[in-house]
Design a protein that fits this description.
It is a single chain. The chain is α+β, with helices and mostly antiparallel strands and about 425 residues long. It is about 30% helix and about 25% strand. The chain contains 14 helices and 22 strands. Strands 3-2-1-4-5 form a five-stranded parallel sheet, with helices on both faces. A five-stranded antiparallel sheet has the order 12-15-18-22-19. Strands 6-9-7-8 form a four-stranded antiparallel sheet, sandwiched between helices. The termini are far apart. The structure holds adenosine monophosphate and glycine. The site of glycine has 7 residues, from loops. Glycine binds next to loops.
Length: about 425
């Protein structure tokens, strides 16, 4: 099978590695890719945000399947353009990608599908905003309706901040605060059938102890030793299956990766958000543990051939990934600094994200520069491997969190005290 993967981040590097492990794979092409991906696949300098460039490349290469990594091309309709050209694609249509592209749309689908989520108001006027904040109280949760690359959500007790954030966007969703640990749980869907992956946890705040601003994600781990034993089954029943059924009933089937961001509240599972693609960096801990061959699985999803009876096969090991971020990330990341020490990394996988090659030197070119994944018999060994590896890497001014999977790696008794 010939596969074309679209994207250039750590998520795509992990996808490329997992696709390569599938014996069915004959050729792996990535557009645009990055210097790490170029070590394991053929990269093409194509603009992922140009539907026509992506379609042209897919046709020229004669690929059997296109896998879309990031959300922007999906919301731009790249999957529609590829399907129109007769090419199988793992990724939802522009209409189905509105589950990520519009918070209000996602809320409507959840309401119609009976999926548990925070009570909310969609507001387009100042009067509606004020009334919603009054009705729901603190902490205030204010979300811009459209794609915002992680910057659209403010959670605050400060009413003025909540109002200021709300006034920045013509349409906002104001919702009830959900209290409880967050879990990312992904489903792979062919439009009618959806298979749940194992859960992962992402660390969204930039600094240790969940301090500082929200980011795209500073690290992740899987599995979750503390999560309820039936979390996968319950998420399938309460969230993933009804959402897929509702999208189908609306005539906009969701084919691709449905990312459910959940809060496990005292009242039960609640959806915080949907995304229409693999999470970054959750993918960097999930795919290294997935034994099911990925290229065939995504092809089955793209061609309506998943079976309800199919199950995913997971390695029993644990995985921890830590993001190495550029100085100033997420506010104003400093780019263009040399990355050193990669040759001394052992016992861990370095997934490249914001990186570029210049005159043979590897330089930082994005806020999240590398994601380093350790896999081990438990979270504690997986953490040690990831942290030992990251300590060998040099990048001036860079920073990372030291507490990824820390609490979860402690023995149950300690964790609960
Ligand atoms: P989102 O982009 O919707 O995932 O929101 C980003 C982050 O804001 C989430 O990962 C949560 O940490 C936080 N957040 C969003 N919605 C809520 C909510 N209703 N209650 C509490 N925290 C939330
Ligand atoms: N890690 C959060 C996301 O991918 O949206």
């Amino acid at each position: 099978m010939k596969v074309l993967l679209i994207g250039s981040g750590g998520r795509e590097h992990a996808l490329a590695q997992a696709l390569n492990r599938d014996p069915i794979l004959e050729e792996l092409h990535v557009a645009p890719g990055n210097p790490g991906i170029a070590l394991i696949a053929k990269c093409h300098p194509v603009d992922a945000d140009s539907n026509s460039e992506v379609v042209e490349l897919a046709k020229e290469l004669g690929v059997d399947l296109v896998v879309i990594g990031p959300e922007k091309p999906l919301v731009n309709g790249v999957a529609d353009a590829l399907r129109k050209a007769g090419i199988a694609v793992f990724g939802p249509s522009a209409l189905a990608a509105q589950l990520e592209g519009s918070k209000d749309f996602a809320k409507q689908v959840m309401r119609d599908a009976g999926v548990p989520t925070a009570r909310s108001f969609t507001c387009t006027t100042k009067a509606e905003i004020v009334a919603a904040l009054d009705a729901l109280g603190t902490p205030y949760v204010v979300k811009h309706d459209g794609l915002a690359a992680g910057k659209g959500v403010v959670v605050t007790n400060d009413r003025q901040l909540a109002l200021d954030h709300a006034y920045l966007s013509p349409c906002v969703v104001i919702e009830e605060y959900l209290d409880g640990p967050e879990v990312s749980l992904f489903g792979i869907s062919d439009g009618t059938t959806i298979l749940a992956m194992q859960p992962a946890q992402d660390f969204k705040r930039v600094f240790d102890g969940d301090l500082g601003p929200n980011t795209g994600g500073m690290g992740a781990y899987s599995p979750l030793p503390w999560a309820p034993a039936d979390i996968v089954e319950q998420t399938l029943i309460q969230v993933l299956k009804p959402t897929i059924a509702e999208m189908n009933a609306r005539g906009t089937p969701f084919i691709g990766l449905l990312y459910a961001g959940l809060a496990l509240t005292k009242q039960g599972i609640r959806v915080i958000e949907f995304n229409a693609r693999f999470g970054d960096p959750e993918t960097q801990v999930l795919l290294p543990r997935l034994n099911t061959p990925l290229a065939k699985l995504l092809y089955q999803a793209a061609t309506g051939a998943l079976k309800n009876s199919s199950t995913l096969d997971w390695a029993p090991e644990s995985a921890v990934t830590v993001v190495l971020a550029a100085e100033g990330y997420p506010t104003a990341p400093k780019l263009g600094d040399p990355i050193t020490g990669l040759e001394s990394v052992e016992n861990a996988t370095v997934f490249y994200a914001g990186t570029t090659l210049k005159d043979g030197s590897l330089l930082s070119s994005g806020g999240r520069v590398l994601t380093i994944t350790g896999v081990g018999e438990n979270l504690s060994t997986a953490r040690s491997k990831a942290y030992e590896a990251i300590s060998k890497i040099g990048l001036r001014g860079s920073h990372y969190r030291h507490d990824i999977a820390l609490t979860a790696s402690l023995p149950q008794k300690v964790r609960e005290n």
